[in-house]
Amino acid sequence: MGFRKDFLWGGATAANQCEGGYNEGGRGLANVDVVPIGKDRFPVISGDMKMLDFDDQHFYPAKVAIDMYHHWKEDIALFAEMGFKTYRMSIAWSRIFPMGDEKEPNEAGLQFYEDIFKECQKYGIEPLVTITHFDCPIHLIEKYGAWRSRELVGFYENLCKVIFNRYKGLVKYWLTFNEINMILHAPFMGAGLNFEPGDNKEQIKYQAAHHELLASAIATKIAHEVDPENKVGCMLAAGAYYPYSCKPEDVWASRQEDRENYFFIDVQSRGEYPAYALKKMERAGIQLEMAEGDLELLKAHTVDFISFSYYSSRVATTDPKLLEQTQGNIFASVKNPYLEASEWGWQIDPLGFRITLNDIYDRYQKPLFVVENGLGAVDVPDENGYVADDYRISYLAEHVQAMKDAVEIDGVDLLGYTTWGCIDLVSAGTGEMKKRYGFIYVDRDNEGNGTLKRSKKKSFDWYKKVIATNGEDLSN
User: Fold this and answer.
1) Global pTM value
2) What is the pLDDT at residue 334?
3) Strand pairing report for 440-442 and 454-456
4) Does residue 451 contact residue 44 with C-beta atoms inside 8 Å?
5) According to the model, what pLDDT value does residue 330 have?
6) Which has the closest alpha carbon to 69: 15, 117, 29?
7) Which NCBIfam families has this protein been placed in (predicted)?
8) Architecture of the domain whose range is 8-468
């Protein structure tokens, strides 16, 4: 029968990639603001190059992004025109608590999001809100060392109490941390972590992860107490790993890679640290500092649903000659000779999407929510800002069909689907504007030039039709 009648079709953004207004409305500075575009971007997001403020040598795309801070009414109207049932967005922590450790929140920030949620409600759009999408106030990094400090659990708890109470009745669907497994791959972007020479990076990353997992459980507890209607999900950067060959060593390598990704979700969904992870930490000499009651909290407050991003599958091998790298959402992986790739080298694999959906559903047996999927491409607009993005339509049609097969043929329980970057925004990986995902073109380039004018691409009307037919009509 295809997708459920109340299937939540929509699109996704993140505050730091679209809002801008970094110094307006009482907002404080966050880690995601000070990540530049260019050669220093990766050293900064990986925590190896310390950058906690702006300098004159770099361009910082998040300062303005697409200025949704001043355009949100217009943008939500366009989402409504497409027929969105849901809009996934995130809250900028430093809008609500500019320093992060204040007792009282910033009313201007609270009001800003309340206005957005009410605008969504006006159009019948259900907000799906990520509490932390790579956001960490700079003050918390400077004073406490970000998530390496247990004190952040309390500050996050305070944030959750404030937003769950303030937005009760306006927001029902929540995600605690975006792509929580990114802490292992981009620790500064994922959790505000900076490293000094001589630091035990693995120890710091896993300790910070424990604090985030704890914070996630506490958020789930509070959400359910404040409003029993609340549904809380976790979120991982997903994509099944294939063995490069049927050589048993390659199969084992792919299993190990998958486990590294699922480790966090195992804790959030099942409520305990899996045996393989405990053994891995033991071998690496990682000793997690825990307080009494931590494990009980994790066990008692598991998530209601699992959400994830999917852009590509990945490949694992033990053959050093085959380690020709391909890119994909911060992760590098071995090239799959059977797949085509995007302009950024991300391998395109719709069947891998179905495989990933099945893997996650088989593993957890909880409802799933696809909260990111899309194609980053160079779009060339005509003089009216119109882009004939047939390549994007083709990518999305194939992925929606694969998702439909997972639901219809395989029986996966799926709540909804939000494409990534429903409006063009700043790329998290590269900081570029020219790597576009949206149904809506935004006139801005990598250097910050442009009018910020919004215009519909060809995919806008295509997605409108997909939503109107509940995924039945995928034709171009």
Assistant:
1) 0.97
2) 85
3) antiparallel
4) no
5) 55
6) 15
7) PRK09593.1, PRK09852.1
8) Alpha-Beta Barrel (3.20)
Q: Are 395 and 458 in contact (CB under 8 A)?
A: no
Tokens matching residue 415: 């709540």
Task: Tell me the residue type at 106.
Answer: N
Length of the chain (residues): 476
Task: List residues bridging with 377 in a β-sheet.
Answer: 436
Cα–Cα distance measured from residue 265 to residue 224, given in angstroms and rounded to the nearest whole number: 19
DSSP-derived secondary structure letter, 414: E
Helices and strands (DSSP H and E) totals, the chain: 15, 14
Catalytic residue check, 272: no
At 384 the pLDDT is 87
pLDDT band at 323 (very low <50, low <70, confident <90, very high): low
Q: What is the pLDDT of residue 448?
A: 97
Query: Could you say which of 372, 383, 398, 432 is catalytic?
Result: 372
Look up residue 180 and give its two tokens: 């929580």
Distance between CA 54 and CA 70 in Å, rounded? 22
Give, as one character, the DSSP assignment of residue 125: P
Average pLDDT for 440-462: 98
Model confidence band, residue 342 (pLDDT cutoffs 50, 70, 90): confident
- DSSP labels for 18-78? HT--TTSTTPPPBGGGGPPSSTTHHHHHTTSS---S--TTS--GGGTTT-HHHHHHHHHHH
- 24-to-54, 93, 138, 308 alpha-carbon distances in Å: 16, 14, 16, 31
Sorted by where each begins, the domain ranges of the chain are: 8-468
Which residues have CB under 8 Å from 469's CB, separation 6+?
none
136 forms beta bridges with none
Using a 10 angstrom Cβ sphere, with 0-12 exposed, 13-18 middle and 19 or more buried, the burial of residue 197 is exposed
CB atoms within 10 A of CB 219: 27
Task: Say how far apart CA 16 and CA 439 lie, in whole Å.
Answer: 19
Neighbours of 476 (CB within 10 A): 10
Contact 100, 17 (CB under 8 A): no
Mean pLDDT of 363-383: 97
- Which residues have CB under 8 Å from 319's CB, separation 6+? 244, 245, 250
Beta strand pairing status for 325-328 and 331-334? antiparallel
AA identity, residue 140:
L
Q: Which two tokens stand for residue 183?
A: 């802490």
Integer angstrom CA distances of residue 339 from 262, 317, 358, 425, 429: 24, 17, 20, 27, 22
3-state secondary structure (DSSP) of residue 376: coil
